[in-house]
Amino acid sequence: MSRRALITGITGQDGSYLAELLLAKGYEVHGMVRRVALEDPSRRLDRISRVLDRVKLHAASLESFPSIYHVFRLVQPDECYHLAAQSFVSYSFDDEFSTFNTNINGTHFVLAALKDVVPRCRFYFAGSSEMFGKVAEIPQTETTRFHPRSAYGISKVAGFDLTRNYRETYNIHASSGILFNHESPRRGYEFVTRKITSGIARILKGESTEVRLGNLDAKRDWGHARDYVEAMYQMLQQDEPDDYVVATNRTHSVRDFVNLAFSIAGLDPDKYVVTDPGFFRPAEVHLLIGDPAKATRVLGWRPKTQFEGLVEEMVTVDCENAGVSLARAKAI
Ligand code: G4F
User: Fold this and answer.
1) Residues of 125-153 as b/e, b for ≥16 C-beta within 10 angstroms?
2) Is 220 touching ligand 1 by the criterion CB < 6 Å?
3) 178: three-class secondary structure by DSSP
4) Whole-angstrom Cα distance, residue 226 to residue 228?
5) Quick one: DSSP state of residue 209?
6) Which of 15, 72, 97, 232 could join 9 via S-S bond, C-beta 3.0 to 4.6 A?
7) What mean pLDDT value characterizes the chain?
8) H/E segment holding residue 175
9) Cα(89) to centroid(ligand 1), Å
10) Which pLDDT band holds residue 332 (cuts at 50, 70, 90)?
């Protein structure tokens, strides 16, 4: 009988890649989605359109314990990947309250339902490099002290602690991935990488003349989401649950991303990129770079896509989607 996986946040970037991976491995894949998503499939289920006929979706809300409990009773999963969250750091400065509600209570509800209904179900929590915040050491590892700089980062530390607590207290097979930034052509438009690559496509199409950005000096360890979901899967295949850094061990500034993306499109960033103080954050995480040695040693995981390939793929796909030929763009 095939194994059953339940993914919260299946409609997001990571959820869509993970659903594809698990289906390819023969899993029966279930997704927990908000009711509004089911009512607006063309927009909200876009990322999982390729697999929509092969996954089973269940309406539930991270704000409602009964709705989550009901889905666990119905699905009886062997593995649960808890990816759903308010994941935009910037927004967490505008609304700390909803970020805490969704990310902390939501994680607690999922863990509590799992413990009650399917205590042998393996659990994955989507931790984040934002937990390191004002970094205590370079590069960051599983033992680096957390110092979050936003409500988002704090909420992820709480989720991480909840996950470890359920592991130690209730003997749940619960693991956390401390994932550094991971991008793809399926990234949300509000995140800086997609904002840049989709902005380039709009410029080439003649629909825009600029890309407005905040802090270009922030540095991130950027990998490809498709690679990172493999690490999530591997964590739940281990005999013992544990926590793992998932990163590339390379860091680049936002400016590096801008320069490479614009050069791929044959454009001069100085003509189009505008620095806008409105996009600066009240507290910034200046430098992230992760050491994935433990994930490599224990899980056999390595990033397959490097920074250059990631940027090229994102620019290319956004231009294709906009109907702009990159070859022609370069000739302009
Ligand atoms: O793309 P970002 O919004 O991602 P951020 O804040 O690093 O968070 C992402 O990665 C985390 C993992 O470390 C996840 F946990 C989290 O859910 C999310 O996926 O911003 C990246 C950097 C920041 O330093 C930001 O200040 O880009 C800088 N930036 C500069 N201009 C901008 C902009 N960010 C955004 N979103 N928009 C700008 O215009």
Assistant:
1) bbbbbbbbbebeeebbbbebebebbbbbb
2) yes
3) strand
4) 6
5) S
6) 15
7) 97
8) strand 174-179
9) 7
10) low
